[in-house]
Amino acid sequence: MVRRRRGSGRRAPADQGYRLVPFVFEFRSVLDWTVTRTTLTFGQWLKIEDIYSTNYDIKSCARARARAARQHAGRRC
What we know:
Blueprint: H1 11-20, H2 24-35, H3 42-73
Helix pairs in contact: 2-3
């Protein structure tokens, strides 16, 4: 499984574009699965990749919300 590093906000649009292109996620998963020593079936591998991807999305959204809250904390309406 390819590990993603904690990155800047510039990475989010690239990551979204990567997921919008058909079959790129699956192609990368097939490549990762074939070169990684594992006892997982390909279906199990895809489930793990999907869980990891969803977790990444949740963390990215939480960071964006926290960043926006810090920016608006000092402002008064």
